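> tool_call: predict_assembly(chains=two)
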Amino acid sequence: MTTVHQLLPAFAGRDAIGGHCLGVQRVLRDAGFESEIFAREILPDVRGLAHPADRFRPGPDTWALYHFSIGDRLSADVLASGAPLVIDYHNITPARFFRRWEPRVAELLDNGRRALADLAAPTRFALADSTYNAEELRELGFRSTAVAPVLVDLDAFAIEPDRGVLEERGRGRTGAEWLAVGRLAPNKCQHDVIAAFAVYREVFDPGARLVLVGGRSAPQYFSALTRLSRRLGVESAVTFADSVSHAALVAYYRSADVFVSLSEHEGFNVPVVEAMHVGVPVVAYACTALPETVGAGGVLLDDKDPLVVAATVDTVLRDPTARTALVAAGRARAADLSIEKTGPAFLAALRAGLEAAA
Amino acid sequence: MAAGTPLPDDGRPGDDLRARGRALAADASRRPDFPTDAVEGARAAAAALGVPTADADIRAAVAAVEEHAPVDPEPPLDAHRRQAAYAKRVVNRLVRFSNHHLAAQISGLGWSVAWLGRVTAERIEALEAEVTDLRARLARLESDSDAEPAP
């Protein structure tokens, strides 16, 4: 039996790569592969689902599927293990976004890009979440690449939403509910979302509210976001919800009227897929892999001037017919990216790669 | 700001909404009650938090310095492990007086640098205006002398 073990620096159930790993494991096991997950850091929500990375002992027929999104000493350990290497590339945020806020993180990101380039020669073949990511790999010297989207388990959204969050969002509601989901990070440009939201309240809907769901991976940037919402006079209308439980996330999606992403760097972007699946209209800035992920399922903008974003959101929310058509297009796009469709595609890409590289 | 991907109109629901949104933005900005100052303020505040680019003007650079000037002496104390979070709180309490003292000085330095930047920007802008004016006067003088009939 062929064994494909997955390795990653940090394994968390509530992030896109963690969810993808669990999806890949399910797809591989259903197809008769043996597959375990190994990580250097295993977060409490997935303890018991993975093994510590130092216990990775590959057998003669074992492949190492290494999820790459940041530089980590695990790369060297995986290479030293002698297992034939397959990279699943989820992109590395360019360091320029972090340099002014978190110089140490910027250094890690730069190192990550260098480490990735070093892996080009020993890697048998590489998978990428999007054609955007695959192009980056080819530029770094990876010869054999294939595109296989992130596996998103949309069935997980069929659960009961968190009642507390639903009630809290329903209380005192007097206008549109904006939602943005993703780590609070400079490349995700939540500052542009807050600016567009402030203009929206000023020009179109003074009762609107905004929720930003996502962990705070850049504390300085987070402080700047809170100062910005104060400076623009929207402090009381903006909620920084931090990292939340899955039930709470479902409740935030269910409460939202519109999902806004103005990110300047994405290798795929799982939250837009989730929003489209739940039926929240998506307005997104067309940058990096976002046009590929959103497809025809949302409004893509080539300009993220706050007034243009605010006016587009207003157009979407004020025209029920157009909104319904957009929601239907979003649901259709999300269905294309559901694990039922992407799982077999991922497996086919992996099998083809393994056979070619064997 | 990174350039957005050029978007052709393919007749998808989003394409029509994008065009209508742009038209609504243009209409709104022509309304007599349009809050120009608030919208310009939001644009400037968001631009100050973006990735610094080489072609940004000196005012944008000063805005970036001002953004970083207030140093927060309170470090984030979150941690995955409860013991680690507790240890961070204890250490923070022990060194708080020192952190606040340092942060106050660094913030002061930041504000001074921002002030220097603002004064320098004003001088540069005044000089640029003067140079533009002198160039225009010179061009006028040159064209006048060309137009004068030869003695």
